[in-house]
Every structure is written in C-alpha cells, then in structure tokens.
Amino acid sequence: MRLELHLWRYVVLATVLWLPAAFGVAWLLARRRARQGRPHPVRTAYADVFIVSGTVPWLWMILTPGRASGVSLVPLRDLAELAHGPFGAAFAQVGGNLLVFAALGALLPVRSARFAAVWRVGLLAAALSATVEVLQYGLRLGRVSSVDDVILNTLGAVLAALATWPWHAARADAGTAPR
Description:
Layout (H helix, E strand, L loop, with lengths): L1 H34 L5 H22 L7 E3 L4 H7 L3 H13 L2 H10 L6 H21 L5 E3 H17 L5 H5 L6
Parallel strand pairs: 1-2
Helix pairs in contact: 1-2, 2-5, 4-7, 5-6, 5-7, 6-7
C-alpha cells in the first residue's frame, strides 16, 4: 500500500497539471466541431474531454502494480471485511471505487441522448469495470480482482448519472430547460 500511495502521488499531480490544458483542448475541439457543423459542439466536446480526463487517472491507479493478488467472486465479502478494518482505509477504498467511472456516468448522458437512460450507463460501467478487473488479473499486476469493485464502480457511475439528470442530452435536445 505504501508503494501504491507513492506512485499515486504522480497520478494526482499529472491530473492536476492536465486540467487547465483539458479546458483548452475542449474549447479547441468545440470550435472545430462547430466549424464542421456538428450538433451541440460545445456540450459534446467538453463532455468528451472530461469523460477521459476524469476516468483515465483512476484507471491509471487501478492498473498500477501492487503487492496483493487474488480473485474475490463472492459479492459483498470484501466490503464486509472493510467494515471491520480501519475507517480511513474503508473510506478510501469505497470512495475511490465509486469515483472510477463517475465522470463517465455523469457526462455520457449529457453528451449523448443514447445514454440518457441510467440503466444503459450502469450496463456500460459494469462491462468496463469487469474488463478492468479481468485486466488486473490477466496482467498479473499484484492486485485483487473483486466483484465488489465492479459493484462499486457501477454504482458510482449510476449515482453520477442520476446527479446530472437535469442536463441529460435527451432533455436538452427536447428543449426542456434544466431545473
């Protein structure tokens, strides 16, 4: 865990340094899409850039080599074990897992009416999360691949999608004003 925290500092630093550039990239992408006559160039450009900017750092952390290994396929077992451990570790583990696909969950429905149904966001997040867990195991990264991680990653994306519901593309395209 100590090694991971040391490596994760660089992920956090890179992310913080990238954010101002992300706004510039989104602005340039929006201008390009507007010149091409694409629909909703600003909304889609900012959503695209910040889906990537908000998801890649978490994936970078998840795919950083660790010192544990194994597979946990019993739902809620890892969460029950966390409940009996130190609060800070449980909070970081659960909170981190909820945030992995939160940017995707929050912005994908804003970007595309196709994902305005929260169940579609959940299905995509579950598939992506399962893929990440399989990669952790298959690449032998020294990490525990857990069904609880898939559950929490999916829940984070769904909660984020619900939080942005007033701005979902289907509602915006229909002309209803966000509340």
